[in-house]
Amino acid sequence: MAKVAFLGLGVMGYPMAGHLAAAGHVVTVYNRTESKAHAWVAEHGNAWAPTPREAAREAQFVMSCVGNDDDLRAVCLGPDGAFAGMAPGSVFVDHTTVSAAVTRELAALAAEAGISFIDAPISGGEAGAQNGVLSIMCGGDAAAYARAEPIIAAYARTCRRIGDTGAGQLTKMCNQIAIAGLVQALAEALNFAEKAGLDGRAVVDVISQGAAGSWQMSNRHETMLDGEFDHGFAVDWMRKDLGICLAAANENGASLPVTALVDQFYKDIQSMGGARWDTSSLIKRLQ
Fold first, then answer.
1. Which residues touch 47 (CB under 8 Å, ≥6 apart)?
2. What is the pTM of this model?
3. pLDDT tens-digit profile of 105-159?
4. Where in the sequence numbering do the catalytic residues fall?
């Protein structure tokens, strides 16, 4: 069992840290809103700390799951940041979806302090975090990853090192690019079925068993048909992620015409008041 710090107790981080505690690790949590940290300790025991530095002190592994590039820098850097409290030889594992550029920046600063940095963005949504079955794509030093993998296993169904620093974030971009197109296609199919006078559930029951089947179709079609969009990954966060994808594509020359189009569709959803709806709300702009 390891001594672990977990920074960020949002929709994903709260249950992930809980799985670490359930696995028997010694966990200290930090959250910007302290009431969430107190609630977590009341539920799972262990301890909380008022700053990332104090949470990271003596930890062998420090996990983070925050909001964006700036949030990640805030918990890592400065006199109260995690890097200031981490000992040489310890490992920082970042589960936030951020740019590959900030990952490489922080990995270089960590290396100067003798700290290993693993970028490990996650996929699987709130249900995946709660059930401990996330898919995790990682980048960083192979030896450091090998040390961290048994700790990450507490909340992962699949965890794989893809390559060097930044490879995890680039893989997460591939994930978001694929999801954007899938959700838009599903929204169009369900809306088409409705306009054609078909029973959308019956349609999905058939086509989900063939080549059109997907996780999105199996897990989101009913709530899309019912107009329920309060249970998944928010549109605001998806637009943040797609912005990262499009910026990276501008750098590497990849063509992402569908991704760029769906990003604008999500902008429409924001204009409709759906910034906090989950990503399956794309169907609303077609109705």
1. 27, 28, 29, 41
2. 0.93
3. 999 999 999 999 999 999 998 999 999 999 999 999 999 999 999 999 999 999 9
4. 172
